[in-house]
Design a protein that fits this description.
Number of strands: 7
CATH topology: Immunoglobulin-like
Radius of gyration: 17 Å
Helix content: 10-25%
Order of helices and strands: HEEEEEEE
Largest sheet: 4 strands, antiparallel
CATH architecture: Sandwich
Strand order of the largest sheet: 4-3-6-7
Number of helices: 1
Number of domains: 1
CATH class: Mainly Beta
Strand content: over 45%
Distance between the termini: 64 Å
Length: 120
């Protein structure tokens, strides 16, 4: 029985984690108005379908507070990397930079993040 378990792990376990973590690879912040921004975020991930895909990305302030979230409602298997926008994000005047992180349905957070200085 142990030999079958070993072969199962060797053959099939790598297939479970092929997609890896979601990486933010580019962020563009655009001023829309007084303290209001649009974020255009490019994410790379080996989406595999509904069980393993990037399901959101967050804009995080310097104290770790989530300022905005763009929810992604479907996998992007055939569109990698992909860019999505989040307009209307209000950020206080005292914050000069934010970090953008991506989340996937299996690994959650942990991939590459991008910190961007806000244009003011």
């Amino acid at each position: 029985m142990r030999i079958y378990t070993f072969f199962f792990l060797v053959l099939f376990l790598p297939m479970v984690v092929l997609a890896g973590e979601a990486d933010v690879i580019q962020v563009k912040a655009v001023v829309l108005g007084d303290n209001t921004f649009q974020f255009d975020v490019t994410v790379s991930h080996g989406d595999e379908g509904w069980k393993h895909y990037v399901d959101k990305w967050d804009i995080v302030g310097p104290e770790g507070t989530v300022i905005g979230t763009r929810t992604l409602y479907h996998p992007h298997v055939d569109e990698q990397p992909f860019t999505r926008s989040l307009p209307g994000v209000t950020i206080g005047k005292g914050i000069d930079k934010v970090t953008v992180r991506a989340h996937d349905s299996v690994h959650e957070y942990g991939g590459e993040v991008v910190t961007v200085v806000l244009p003011r």
